[in-house]
Write a structure and sequence with these properties.
319 residues, Elongation Factor Tu (Ef-tu), domain 3, Rossmann fold, Ubiquitin-like (UB roll), five-stranded parallel β-sheet, 6 helices, 18 strands, 15% helix, binds FE2/S2 (inorganic) cluster
Length: 319
Amino acid sequence: MSDDVELMTLRIAQKQPAAQDIEFFELRRPDDGDLPEFTPGAHLSLRVPNGELRKYSLCNDPAERDHYCIAVKRETNGRGGSVSLIDHAKVGDDIQVEPPRNDFELAKSPQYLFIAGGIGITPILSMIRHIRATGEGRFKLFYLSRSPEMTAFLDELKQPEFRGMVTIHHDGGNPDDALDLWPVLEKPGAQHLYCCGPRALMQAVRDMTGHWSTAKVHFEDFTPPGAMTKPEDKPFRVKVAGSGASYEVPVGKTILEVLRENGHAVPSSCESGTCGSCKTKLVEGEVDHRDLVLSDYEQPENIMVCVSRAMGDEITIDL
Ligand code: FES
């Protein structure tokens, strides 16, 4: 977990607007030396000025060793991390950063399909830069946003070199004008699909890819567990099979948090229902599956404890 990892000090070398409400940052070591390596799709955790730790995807080419690039959307209705970073961090400031981690690894494939919504372009941009630099595979990108003004890296992705590979679609904020993705998702083929963006977009893509191999569909999401709370949430009990242990899971807490508080070591990484590392055996009970990992076939016997909840009063899991 983040709290156990040693932070390094990096300096903000550049900060500039990338689009409306999106700020681009370049981070370097104070001595300009090489940074820890990263792979396409990796992210950093930063200690933002208000003291919180926040995750941001790296968007530069992993071959660049002397700087990291991130782009941050200013979420005025968020928990304050992005506002703190954009409003209070400036060029020349030192900032504490965890070494890169990757829950959105680029698999080896001859063909990739990328779907990015808004600021979800960032990890995909690092993948595209890697693919273009190495020549390993071909790709198609569908980049969805509200308007050109709100689209980061638009000039770069409109360059002629991307013709035939990149489709940019603006819906003007009207769901009726959203791009119909079914024609590109209907036939899975050999490609791997990577999708990052608003939860509703990822859920829609998940729903349209039920016939894909789950091993070929990848999502990335930094939505905090608390933000996935639904108004209809109720407390319930989680029983641990064979141990006699039974715990109350209140509204606003995840099963994972409750298990940890009670001394159970459960593996996790993304804690947003996208990476698959907290997959737990479901013994009994009905589940409101909120992850983007489990297939329809896997859901009856498994639960992702970082996001999913019981439908009724109780479920039993096996750790
Ligand atoms: S920790 Fe990633 S799916 Fe639960």
